[in-house]
Write a structure and sequence with these properties.
Structural class: alpha+beta
Helix content: 55-70%
Distance between the termini: 114 Å
CATH class of the largest domain: Alpha Beta
Largest sheet: 3 strands, antiparallel
Strand order of the largest sheet: 1-3-2
């Protein structure tokens, strides 16, 4: 029984399987796209993503681990410079597997494995973009109405402050404006 066995048994021996994956990872990183069987492509995706993750770490130990697996200095150099910069802000999913029909000789399912180019861009649906536009317009309208009410409340508070304030002074009431004029005139005399 193959309980808890993660990898696929693609070839007869472990050594042959490891050599196959090394060669395919090297070719994928070198050329950016390869064609292989579907089972090999799905297995290749695991190893290629691990190598790109090592490149994203970027330290010496990661470089040595990648070089031990790939065994090609030019490919490792490309991995740790060009591909590292391309996938630095991406958190996984560096490869894409596209089914490509069946092979003519033995009818085995074929697939194209390629490195994903930069960031994924999604085309927004027209309905969603219109809905978002209406939501943004509604938010802007609410902001303007809140600002208008804030201005009105500030004006009303200012009017309340400048309203006549009566101060009792010896049975006469003097408004604040009259008090200001009388205090301004008294130093001149």
């Amino acid at each position: 029984m193959r309980h808890r066995k993660v990898s696929r048994r693609l070839t007869s021996t472990v050594e042959h399987r490891v050599a196959l994956m090394r060669n395919q990872v090297r070719d994928l990183l070198k050329y950016g796209r390869i064609t292989t069987t579907l089972a090999k492509a799905k297995e290749l995706r695991r190893f290629a993503d691990k190598m790109i993750t090592l490149a994203k770490k970027g330290d010496l130990a990661s470089r040595r681990r990648a070089l031990a697996f790939i065994q090609d200095k030019t490919v490792v150099r490309k991995l740790f410079t060009e591909l590292r910069d391309r996938y630095m802000d991406r958190s996984g999913g560096y490869t894409r597997v596209i089914k490509a029909g069946f092979r003519v000789g033995d009818a085995s399912p074929m697939a194209i494995v390629e490195l994903v180019e930069g960031k994924l861009t999604y085309k927004k649906s027209k309905l969603k973009s219109e809905r978002l536009k209406r939501i943004h317009e509604f938010i802007e309208h609410k902001k303007k109405s809140l600002e208008a009410t804030k201005v009105k409340t500030k004006e009303s508070q200012a009017q309340e402050v400048t309203a006549e304030v009566t101060i009792p002074v010896s049975n006469d009431t003097i408004t604040s404006e009259e008090k200001l004029t009388t205090s301004q005139e008294s130093p001149k005399e």
